[in-house]
């Protein structure tokens, strides 16, 4: 059976990727240091796809640990999700972010160099586009990251491009995710942020659950139809299926291939549209206050997803309603996230 090394597999996106791969008959070797996740997520993956995950607690900066894990054999490709992802934290602690994200990737590549694995899928981000010059955003749009986190993503894309140039036996796909939201349809896996959520959907869910008194809508004077900022929200299960498609594309690709592909729906949704869809689908009112813009926020950001369709044969299928329903299903079944179950 084909094995995929999944770094950061216990995280929000990684757990959905592993469940999706497992249900397709692939085995995952997960490496995670649980810096921002819980081993309970692995147990949930195992419940959905029994016998498909081999989990290792390790830091990707520990090259020898990675070498030992790879030496067990059978891994044919890598999906590299491990990383720190809080934009504000990256501004406060740029060295820690560089060390974890960029040096971590260098360590992973050093370990892989001693193995037969040459297929690499990387979790990049639409944040590399910064303030876009126009929408929809295609992969050829200029990049201008606005944070150390975004710079890390671009630097890693550069490392991978150089790797495949120096050694054309590599095949690489950088996936630039837009705004992943939602949860597994079963309600057993989902996003479990620690502390006060930075992102919109988890904040909406916690407000619906009564954990937060109200949502602050950041900015009502954007040049958009309702004045609130517009994003490309994508269901995390569509995103997970995009990784399966990327592995398929890598299997069929020529050696030396390096592709950078947006994963988004191509549809822009405003903050108020998302909140109203959530209220309608779940029958819950979200108390909210309209406040000032959040510094650094982009007005409008959504993908041109046509390359993903052509190159990966993948298109997002799930609706905004699916995203809101599944996010709330997860939140209402797991009001404390994974913590209660893990204790
Ligand atoms: P997450 O924090 O839930 O998952 C990341 C995982 O990586 C966590 O389980 C964490 O414990 C692990 N990790 C971090 N540093 C590690 C290290 N040094 N060694 C081993 N494990 C380590 O985040 P996520 O939302 O699942 O994001 C996954 C990837 O996708 C990240 O690289 C992130 O930058 C990228 N991404 C996320 C989004 C988003 O909005 N969620 C958007 C674009 C890109
Ligand atoms: C969406 C919209 C907020 C919270 C971030 C990262 C990006 C990527 C995805 C990793 C914005 C508004 C939010 C709230 C609000 N991650 N909002 N009230 O900022 O598009 O992207 O996550 O790569 O790098 O920057 O997503 O969910 O934080 O915000 O009004 O309490 O919701 O202002 O317009 P963002 P988000």
Strand and helix layout:
Blueprint (H helix, E strand, L loop, with lengths): L2 E5 L4 H12 L3 E6 L6 H10 L4 E5 L5 H9 L3 E6 L6 H6 L1 H20 L5 E7 L22 H19 L4 E7 L1 E3 L18 H9 L6 E4 L11 E2 L1 E3 H17 L5 E6 L5 E2 H12 L5 E4 L14 H7 L7 H14 L5 H4 L1
Parallel strand pairs: 1-2, 1-4, 2-3, 4-5, 5-6, 6-11, 7-10, 8-13
Antiparallel strand pairs: 9-12
Helix pairs in contact: 1-2, 1-8, 3-5, 5-6, 7-11, 9-11
| Major β-sheet strand ordering | 3-2-1-4-5-6-11
Main sheet characteristics: 7 strands, parallel
Approximate strand percentage: 15-25%
CATH superfamily of the domain at 3-181 and 233-266 and 303-317: NAD(P)-binding Rossmann-like Domain
How many alpha or pi helices? 12
Approximately how much helix is present in the residues? 40-55%
Structural category is alpha/beta
Radius of gyration (CA) equals: 19 Å
Average pLDDT reading: 97
Q: Which CATH class of the domain at 3-181 and 233-266 and 303-317?
A: Alpha Beta
CATH topology of the domain at 3-181 and 233-266 and 303-317: Rossmann fold
Distance between the termini: 34 Å
**DSSP E strands, number:** 13
* SSE topology string: EHEHEHEHHEHEEHEEEHEEHEHHH
Small molecules (ligands, ions, cofactors) in the structure = nicotinamide-adenine-dinucleotide, UDP-4-deoxy-4-formamido-beta-L-arabinopyranose
CATH architecture of the domain at 3-181 and 233-266 and 303-317: 3-Layer(aba) Sandwich
Uncertain residue ranges: none
């Amino acid at each position: 059976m084909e094995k995929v090394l999944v770094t950061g597999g216990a995280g929000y996106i990684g757990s959905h990727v592993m469940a999706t791969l497992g249900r397709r008959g692939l085995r995952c070797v997960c490496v995670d240091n649980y810096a921002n996740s819980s081993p309970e997520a692995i147990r949930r993956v195992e419940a959905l796809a029994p016998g498909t995950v081999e989990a290792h607690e390790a830091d990707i900066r520990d090259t020898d640990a990675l070498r030992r894990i790879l030496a067990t054999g059978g891994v044919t490709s890598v999906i590299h999700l491990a990383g720190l992802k809080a934009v504000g934290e990256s501004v406060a602690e740029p060295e820690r972010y560089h060390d974890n994200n960029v040096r971590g990737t260098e360590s992973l590549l050093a370990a892989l160099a001693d193995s037969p694995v040459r297929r690499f899928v990387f979790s990049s981000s639409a944040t590399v586009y910064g303030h876009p010059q126009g929408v929809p955003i295609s992969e050829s749009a200029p990049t201008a990251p606005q944070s150390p986190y975004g710079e890390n993503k671009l630097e890693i894309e550069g490392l991978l491009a150089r790797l495949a140039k120096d050694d054309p036996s590599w095949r690489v796909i950088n996936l630039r995710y837009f705004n992943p939201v939602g949860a597994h349809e079963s309600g057993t896996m989902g996003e479990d942020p620690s502390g006060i959520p930075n992102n919109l959907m988890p904040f909406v869910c916690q407000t619906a659950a009564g954990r937060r008194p109200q949502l602050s809508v950041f900015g009502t004077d954007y040049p958009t139809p309702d004045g609130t900022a517009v994003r490309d929200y994508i269901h995390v299960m569509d995103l997970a299926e995009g990784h399966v498609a990327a592995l398929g594309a890598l299997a069929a690709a020529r050696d030396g291939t390096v592709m950078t592909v947006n994963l988004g729906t191509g549809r822009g949704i405003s903050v108020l549209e998302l909140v109203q869809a959530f209220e309608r689908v779940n029958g819950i009112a979200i108390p909210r206050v309209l406040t000032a813009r959040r510094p650094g926020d982009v007005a409008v950001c959504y993908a041109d997803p046509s390359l993903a369709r052509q190159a990966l044969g993948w298109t997002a299928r799930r609706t905004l309603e699916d995203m809101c329903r599944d996010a709330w299903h997860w939140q209402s079944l797991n009001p404390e996230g994974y913590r209660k179950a893990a204790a």
